[in-house]
Structure formats: C-alpha cells, structure tokens
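Re: the pair you flagged

First of the two:
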Amino acid sequence: MELDVNYISKLARLKLTEEEKIKFSKQLTKILEFMNTLNEIDTKDIKPTSHVIELNNVFREDVVKPSELADDILANAPEREGLYFKVKKVIE
C-alpha cells in the first residue's frame, strides 16, 4: 500500500513525510477494505440512482420586477440615466 501512496503523491506532486506516508497508507487500506465490503453486497435488483431522495425541479419562473433599492444603489453612481448606470464608451 505504501507504493500506492508514493505513486499517488508523485502524481499529485505532493511531498509527503514518512509519517504522512504511513498515515495515508493506513487510511487507503481502510478505504479499500470498505470498498471490498461494499462489493460483497448483492445489488443486482437495485436501480442505479444519483441521489438517495427523489429530486424535483424547484426553479421558479423568471419575473421582471422593479427594484425597491434602485434609487439607493444609483445614489452612489457618478452618472446615471434613468434606472441605469451611465458609463463612458470603451469601444471605438
């Protein structure tokens, strides 16, 4: 497992101390053991899902509304034109 940690750290361009290599090696071993446990579970009749809970679209329709804060926001503008900031032309 230490070879895997060395290989992964090299790919990620991480310099690990010997203590970190030992620590990550133990953690990687536990992860792989857990994956083996999960592989033993019979999932042939279980439908693949991306979420545990069914998701519904929660988007709302876009509705244009006048802002109540427009005057407060535009109060600091150097120049304004109606409800818009007026800026100098930058393209010739």
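Second of the two:
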Amino acid sequence: MPKTNQILIVEDEEIIRKSLCKLLERHGYGVCEAVSIKAARETFVLDNFSLIISDLRLPGQLGTDLIKMVAPVPVLIMTSYASLRSAVDTMRQGAVDYISKPFDHDEMMVAVRRILNASQKKATTATISLQTPSLLGSSEAIKKVTRLISKVAASDLPILIQGETGSGKSAVAMAIHNTRKCSDKAFISIDCAGIKESELVTQLGTSDLSVTVFLNNIGELPLSLQPHLLRHIQRSNCSFICSTDQDLEQLCQGGLFRKDLYYQINVVSITMPPLRQRSEDIPLIANAILAQLSDSHRELSEDGRKALANYHWPGNLLQLKNTLQQAAILASEDKPIDAEQLGLCDLPLNPYQESDSVRSTLSINQVDDAPAGLSLEDYFTRFVLENQENMSETDLAKKLGISRKSLWERRNKLGISRKKGDELVND
C-alpha cells in the first residue's frame, strides 16, 4: 500500500467511522479503518499512513497513545468531550490537530488537506536539509549523524552538538529543526561568543513555545550570563540546541562553565566528525559546493579529487569552501580544477587516509588511539619523546607496532636522535 494520501481511521462507533470513510474516499483519499489501536496494529503497518484520524476514547487505549507510537506520522484526534482543557492536553501530547464530534464535513476536509500539505512540505524540507554539503556522504561517520538527526528530531529534548570549528554543527542544528513538527516556526540563532547581557535577554525574550533556539558557541558564553540562560532554559518550553568546539567538561573542571548548565543542555549529544575522518565524502561535498558557487558547472580533475581527499583540512568545511571558491575564480572555465589550482600540491596528507604507506608506519591500534587532530608524525614524535627515557628501543618499537629498524628510520626522518648514553641496558 503506497503511503501517499493513505489515511487510517481508528474509531469504535461504526456510524461515525463509515461516514468519515465515505467522506474521505469521495475526496480521492485511500482509507483504511480499525475499531481500536490493538486492531489497527494487528492489521496494518501504521507508519505506512500519511495521516491517522483517531477517536480520543477507544476500547483498551486512548487515541493519544498513537501519537508517540506512530511518530512522525501525524495524528488528528476526534472527541465528543469538547473542551478547551482537553484540546490543550491533546495538543501538548503531540496531536497535529483536534476536532470535536459531531464534526462539520467542510471543517474536517480543511484540516485533512492542511495536515497532509504540511507533512509533504516537511518531508521535502527534511530531505533538502540533509542534502546540505556538510551532511552529504556515505561514510559511516556521517551516516551515524544523519541517523541521529532523524531520531532526536522526534523529541524536544535539549541537544548538544560538538565538533571542531567549521565541521558543520550549524547545519546539523538546522536539519534537526527542519525535521521537527515545528519546522514552520522560527529558528532563532544566538552566537554566545562575546554576547552582552542585554542582547541575550532581548533575543531570548523573543522566543515562544514553538521556537527552536540555537545557542552557537555555548562554551564561550560569559560565566556571568550562564545563570540567566540556565533559568530561561528551565522555565521555557522552547526547543534548545547548543553547539561547541570546546570540551565543556574541562571548562566545568576549570570553573569556566557551570556544571548545572552543562547537564541541562547535554541531554542528547551529537558529535560532528571533522572532515579528515570522512575523506571519502569530500569529492561529493566539493561538487555540491562548486554547484552552489556558480551557475556554470565546474568539475574537478582526477588529481584534484585525490588532493582534496588526501588533505587533512584543519579548517574543515569552512576551509574546503574557501579553497574551492578561490579555485573556481582562478581556474579556466573550460578545464577541470586540478590540485595545483586548488593550492594543494605538496601539502600534508590526511593522517586518517587508509593508504598502505601510512598504515605501514604505525599499527592500526596506535593510529586509532591517537588524539584527535594529531598527524601520525606528531603522534610518533610525541610518543617517542615522552617515553624514550623509560623504555628501550625494543619496547618503544613493540608499543608502536613497528620493527626496530622502522623505528630507527623514522627517528632519522623526523630528526629525533637518541644519544648512546641514554640507551637502556637491555638495548
């Protein structure tokens, strides 16, 4: 059964159920029916429907139980117990709309069309949001992020997005907002770096129940303003998304960030991987950026694609975009952009690129244990200098997963000498 324009009616009163079925079918919708939630679950795959219309009071369960059960499928609740209180309670539980029985046919059809149109627009927006350059790719690292975006968008819990500068944290925040039910509402972005109290109060004061508040660079929020933000988050019903390129736990330990605020914003955590850890995605991202930069189609040469994938990109997506922008201006329009025009000739290789020449230098375990941001040469140098006074050459080589000959050759290449007087006895 195709999902487009398929509606499920869950109603135990036969007269109402059949009447609604005929009304919807008359307007061209595919309709299925069930007398209870249990019957619906046993008969149909609920997430195959575009909309579920359910009575509030059903045998065994309330119709509102469907809301979380079928999310993100919209649920329209009908009830004969029409009151402002029940309407508010129903909407708070996540119902897309509320109609009292007996319902007016025209009112019902207006609601159905509006809900289905909004759902279609939301699905399109969500697809587009996940196609922004920073979220493109087939690497496991980015697929994990996109899966998390779909999951966390179903709730309004505070979300903390962590990652290096330029890695695409803002794009993740926007994708979450666009995937949520409130995607048609405002998205307020506040840069916490150097913000003044009056500015913070003003921007937070513009938010209401349906707004997503994105607090960018939350780690740079002045300590004096953190209590105000904490109180606002605790009292507000807004959806809060924060981002940082700093280690907030270390800031807490140093007394630069409030622990209670950290725990308040870090309910759900998403880590945006740096570009060097998803090198297989870079050619696709680069093509998308080039398409955005110019109406004319610009292509990369083979050596240009390889150079982009092999470079370590300390500035991540921001640096990649700047590099491509400059190359698109300087390169000839009738020729593909190559490595030289990108300015990537003879630059450091990506230490996470799994080439035999790189992997043969250190063991796989040692590479994976290297701190984020360190190249293989940096890791090798630091490890040797920190341990050579207490370890023999044999032990150093064993710990690094290489032979003593490789250790010696690597020392010579990197200029890390060891005096004979420093050699341990068992060498």
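Strands lie at 6-10, 30-34, 51-55, 75-79, 97-100, 159-162, 187-191, 212-216, 239-244, 268-271.

-B.
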